[in-house]
Design a protein that fits this description.
Low-confidence stretches of chain A: none
Order of helices and strands of chain A: HHHEEHHH
Oligomer: homodimer
CATH superfamily of chain A: Winged helix-like DNA-binding domain superfamily/Winged helix DNA-binding domain
Mean pLDDT of chain A: 96
Largest sheet of chain A: 2 strands, antiparallel
Helix content of chain A: 55-70%
Strand content of chain A: under 5%
Distance between the termini of chain A: 41 Å
CATH topology of chain A: Arc Repressor Mutant, subunit A
Number of domains of chain A: 1
Shape of chain A: elongated
Radius of gyration of chain A: 19 Å
Amino acid sequence: MQISSRFTIAVHIFSCIDTFGASEKITSDFLASSIQVNPVIIRKLLGQLRDAGLVAVQRGTGGASLAKPADEISLLDIFNAVESLESGKLFHFHENPNPNCPVGRSIHPVLDGRLDQIQSAMEREMQRITLADIFADTKKYIAITSHS
Amino acid sequence: MQISSRFTIAVHIFSCIDTFGASEKITSDFLASSIQVNPVIIRKLLGQLRDAGLVAVQRGTGGASLAKPADEISLLDIFNAVESLESGKLFHFHENPNPNCPVGRSIHPVLDGRLDQIQSAMEREMQRITLADIFADTKKYIAITSHS
DNA sequence: TATGGTTGTAACAAGCGAGGTTACAACTTC
DNA sequence: GAAGTTGTAACCTCGCTTGTTACAACCATA
């Protein structure tokens, strides 16, 4: 099962805030047209990002902005905000291994640490990448492809 | 979205083969009772593991066994065998970013590499762990908890 | 060759989460 | 109050996971 597109959509939202935030009001409708999904999807996502302390959203008047400097928001922060994993675990373990079987008893103690180890490797990599990196790359890409 | 339990079930299957393979015939019914899931689930999984060249399954007479030495089967091999990701990608990207928006155009080129980088970190960790490691840990755990 | 245990697979169902959509109350500025 | 926006409820569809029954194909052995 793939990780849901909420994650890439969230990054897209941040890139829009950075690119257009100075000149335009970043509403859910504006974002919806860049991302091409329903505005309500965006609002729900912005709600998750707000609850995680990553964005500020203006009620009534409208508009989203960063709640922190870009280099203090990592991809892991975003991932954890929008991808609420069951009890924080990336891997879904089968529920009822047979406790009367030696292997059934041992599978959890043996595997749990390994699964954490794998998940940690992924999280470490996500933590190393911040929005500052993404914004820099986006600026570079837009500059290269626009001065034609 | 969590990774499906097929992965942990598959590892459980291998542990049973290693622990009981010498003394018992490892049928889908036997495995089903240790894992406590339906035998048909096991047969489908064994089919995927067989197609990936990881196990050998006897038709008619029944029984599963390793198709390779344990230290030549990594958790990544198992993961790829049972968790068929859409086009091999861990992250589901939103389908239609707006090509008329600078950010919509750049989000793919900017993010794709980063996502691959994260997925690679996870895969590298999975590749480092082989069934030989799991089997050794299982033996250790069973030994410790059985001589009471 | 007939029997019994087993695998492979089809067919279906229930449950869950993702993603979509409409609708509307609550809010804020003008 | 009007206009634009957010927050949220309610509902839908779709696909995937997991579970289940059923049965043909298979193979060793009696």
